[in-house]
User: What shape does this take?
Amino acid sequence: MAEQTPPRTYETPPTDRPITEAEAARTAGLAHNEHLKIASGYLRGTLADGLLKHATGAISEDDGQLVKFHGMYMQDDRDIRAERTKKKLEKAFSFMIRLRIAGGVVTPKQWLALDHIATTYAGGALRATTRQTFQYHGVIKSNLKRTMAAIDATLLDTIAACGDVNRNVMAATNPAQSGAHKAAYQLGKDISDSLLPKTSAWREIWLDGERVVGGEDAAEVEPVYGKTYLPRKFKTVVAVPPSNEVDIFAHDLGFIAILDKKNQVTGWNVTVGGGMGMTHGETDTFPRTADVMCFVKPEDALKTAEAVMTVQRDWGNRKVRKNARLKYTIERYGLAAFRAEVEKRVGKPLADPKPFTFTNNGDRYGWTEGDDGRHHLTLYIASGRIKDIVDGPQLLTGLRKIAQVHEGDFRLTGNQNVIIANVPSEKRAEIEALVDQYGLTKGASALRRNSMACVALPTCGLALAESERYLPDLMTELETSLASHGLQDDEITIRMTGCPNGCARPFIAEIGLVGRGPERYHLYLGAAFDGSRLGKLYAEDVTASEIKTILDPLFAAYARNKQSGERFGDYLIRDGYVTRTINGPDFHEKTGALKSAA
Assistant: This one.
C-alpha cells in the first residue's frame, strides 16, 4: 500500500498582492533585500560609482546583492585569504559571471567568442554549469566592463542569470526527438524572453548606455516584477520524457512534454514547488520535489508560466528569505489553493495531468542520430570544467578546433556536459577525427558519467567543504570499491556540494554528499535514479576518509541482493537501510541508518 501523507492544515492565501512598493517601504519586518530592491532605482544602486573606486577590488555589500540581478557574484580566493589577512592586504576579490543562455544552445561563432573571453579575462577556462549555461570565474573588477562588452558582442547577456527573478531557463537537450526538442527549446526561450526584467540598468551600467544589438529602448518600469521583483530566485525548466536530464522535480516551475505516437507535443504537464536549498540544523528549511499540478495546451503554456510566477510574487514570504522560495509558499497555502489562483490568472480551468514516464536524469553519451537524420555527440565534461587537462582530454583546444569547422550548434546540458549537435552526415568523420585527436572521449566510468559537483572552494563564499576539487579523487576510490563487487558498469548517480544550497542538486542523487565543514559531509542515500524522489540523511558529519568505508558494504549488499533492473537508491529502501522520503518536511524525519550493512 502506498504511504499516505497525513492531512494538512493550510493558511488562508492573501486576497490581493500583499507587498506593494509603498507598503514595503514603510512596513517593518521585511527582509533587508526587499527595501534594497525598492531603493535601487530598478537594480542600479551605486554600481556605476563603485566600479570607479579603483582602490579596492570589491563593491559595497548592498551592491553585492544587486549585482546578482546582473548575473554576477562577488567572490574571493579563499585559498589565500588567511595569508592576505596576515599581511594586512585586502581579500583577493574577483567576480563570477553567469550567462543567460535559454536552453543552453550556442552557435560555433559564439563558442569561439566565449572561448576568447575565457582566455582573456577568466583564467583560461569555461565552466558549463548545472543551470545549462556558462560561468566565468576570476574576473577582476577592472575587467568587468570589458568582459560584459565582449559578452554583449556575442549577442548573449547575463541579465537575470542570478537574483530574485526568473533565472536561466533550462530545456531538454534531446535531439534524437527533434520535433519535441524544438518545441521544448522554443517554450524555454519564450518563457525566458517573456519573464526577463525590463530595466535598462544592465545596458546602462555595463555598456555605457549603448544599445544591445537588435534591442529596443526599455521603458523604465517592470510590468511583471514591480520594484520588489520576486521574494527569492525562481527557476524554470522544460523536460521531454523519457529523459529527465533537466531534473524537473528540483525546480520552482517545470513543463513536461506530453507526446503523441509521432513524438509531437500535444501539451505540457506543469510542475510547481521544487527546490534544493536548505540550512544545516534548521528543520524549517528543506529540499522539496515539485508537484505535478496540471496539464496545459501549447497555446496556454506561456500564460501559465507567468501566472505561476506572479502568484509566487504575491504570495511568497518577503519577511524571511530562507522561507521565501515557491516550495515554501505551496507548503504554506497548499497545492489546491495555489492551482485555483493560477487558474484565475490564466482565465480558465486547467486540466489534470496526463500520464508520463521518466527513466533517468542523466545524459546519453556518444553519438546519436535524430529523427531528421542529423548526428549529435555528447561529451562527458568533469564538473563542467572546459580546460586542457594534463595527460587527459584537451577540452578547451579540441572544442575550439571543432567550433572552427562545425556547421551545427553546441548544446550545454543540465549535467554540465556538452553536445556537439546537428552534425550533417558528411561532416561527421571530420568531427570524429578532431574528437580523437584531442582525446575528448577518453573513457569515463559509469559512476563519473552520472556525477556532478558544484565549484565550492576556493571561490564560493558559501562553501563549507571541497566539492569540484575533491569529487574526482573520491570517485577513484569508489570505482575500486564498485569493481570489487562487480558493479563497475552499474549506473549510480553521485553528486557533491560544498554547502546545503544544493547547486549540484545532491538531494536527488542516489549518493548525495553535502559539505558540513572542512573534509566533513552529510551523506544522503535513497533518492530515485530518475530524479523524482529525495534521498534521506544516512550518516552525519562523515569525514572524507570514511565515505568509502561506509559505502563499500552497501555496494556489497546491493550486488548480492538486488533484483533485476533495481536501482541502488530503490534497493537501499526496499532492503531497509534507509527510510523513503515522501517530500518536503518529511526530509528531516526518520533519518539515519536503519540497520548495519556489515
